[in-house]
Amino acid sequence: MKHIKRVFLIVLLSVITCSFGCGNTVSSVSENASSTNISLPDAVIKLNYYVWGDELPYATSAANAFNALHNDILVSVFSLSNTSYETLLDQTLNDSSVTVDLFGTKGMASTIQFVQKKKSLDITDKVKDSIKDGSLNVSAYGTMFNSILYQNRYYSLPSRSTCWELYYNKDLFDQAGLSYPEQMTWSEYCILAKKLTTGNGTAKKWGGYWVNWIPNFIALQHGSYLTDDDLSYTRQSLELMNQLYAIDCSHVSYQAMANAPDPSHDVYQMFEAGKIAMVPQGEWMINELLGSNTSVDWDIAPMPIDQGEEAGTTVGQYQFVNIAASCAHPAEAFEFMKFLCGKEGATIYAQNAILPAYLDDNISNDYLKATVKESARIFLAARKYVEQPPVSGYQECIEAFTKQSDLYFNGKQTLDETIEHFDSLRRTYYQ
């Protein structure tokens, strides 16, 4: 089996301020809403951009800013549920009664899936021409931009850059008489989480809440992927998570997370309620916390690492914008894509406490102001391994691994069986 080259990527940062004139504006729209009630001239080109629910507020702000500059183009933003977004998007793209011009994807693996299904437009020539004429400054995306080519072609541009770090409740640390976390190892994290787990029933306070979204996280911190010949780090990652869930019982259990009324947001709700001391989570949690009514005094520390790993090592990836292969106006769609993924869109995202892919000093400053946390600098200085390599079959590997991990965490198979079954399954997806 082919071994993915391990590329260590450090995020670069940037920013710009912009002003907007008069033009078309639209409100946020959901998956079943009409795009706009505005009466428009026939000459106006209408573009529909689909995103998952959490993206809707800032994607709409960016669309309105773009519309304000263009009297001949109107971009409307539609959202699909966060849960099963890719499945819902696939169904929407296959529905001939629905017009989809642009759509977001949550990473390189799902982006490749849509390319293979011939749902995503090849924008290679547009990207190269824009680099040549200076309308697209790819250096502002940092070195991770090198990882978005698929079979030497461009099919998307990055809008956001994700980065995992450690959120913590200062109040619970104060109550326990413990120092706030700094860079620590995973072993130290496990010990600390047990110390912070107290009480029973409704009075229970958990040391941590580790979402089940990336069961191979520890492996990724070593640059080890699901397609690697050696799955030792992947095994270690599963073992550590199971220790936290079921052995130490210092974290909300795997079963409790799965059975929560709102699984995708349960981690935020429990942290905001003061029930959780530490949460390994992405940069998007800042936006969530700032928009909540929580009284929790929270802050951010580096992700724990294995002994011997370089401080600040974590995991992240881009979130992407794609032009649908069926788009009737690809030139105009690409103009919006460049706006959203360029300086103007990045400024809007940063001012909403969302970390954009495009960064410079001004945008970085806007981001830090919006987050109101000096510790948010950690996202700008992090050393990140790319979460998903640009190879065929990786999304299928993720899905197979997630199913096998679920069986392990629920006690339905051993760790050895989990690794063995996954190793057999992945060979059908990636050669």
Question: Would you mind describing this structure in some detail?
Answer:
With 431 residues, the protein is of the alpha/beta class. It folds into 2 domains: 15-161 and 319-379, Periplasmic binding protein-like II (D-Maltodextrin-Binding Protein, domain 2); 164-315, Periplasmic binding protein-like II (D-Maltodextrin-Binding Protein, domain 2), CATH 3.40.190.10. The chain is built from 17 helices and 13 strands. The chain has helices at 56-69, 85-93, 108-116, 124-133, 170-176, 186-195, 217-221, 232-247, 254-258, 266-272, 284-290, 330-341, 343-351, 361-371, 377-381, 394-409, 415-426, and strands spanning 8-10, 29-30, 45-52, 73-80, 102-105, 156-161, 164-169, 206-208, 276-282, 298-301, 313-316, 318-323, 383-386. It has a 6-stranded mixed β-sheet with strand order 2-4-3-5-12-6. α1 (56-69) links the parallel β3 and β4 (73-80). The protein is globular. The termini are close together. The model is unreliable at 1-38 (pLDDT under 50).
Short description:
By secondary structure, the chain is α/β, with parallel strands linked by helices. It has helices at residues 56-69, 85-93, 108-116, 124-133, 170-176, 186-195, 217-221, 232-247, 254-258, 266-272, 284-290, 330-341, 343-351, 361-371, 377-381, 394-409, 415-426; strands at residues 8-10, 29-30, 45-52, 73-80, 102-105, 156-161, 164-169, 206-208, 276-282, 298-301, 313-316, 318-323, 383-386.
Number of β-strand runs:
13
State the assembly state of the protein chains.
single chain
Classify the fold: give the CATH topology of the largest domain.
D-Maltodextrin-Binding Protein, domain 2
Mean of residue pLDDT values: 91
Supply the number of structural domains.
2
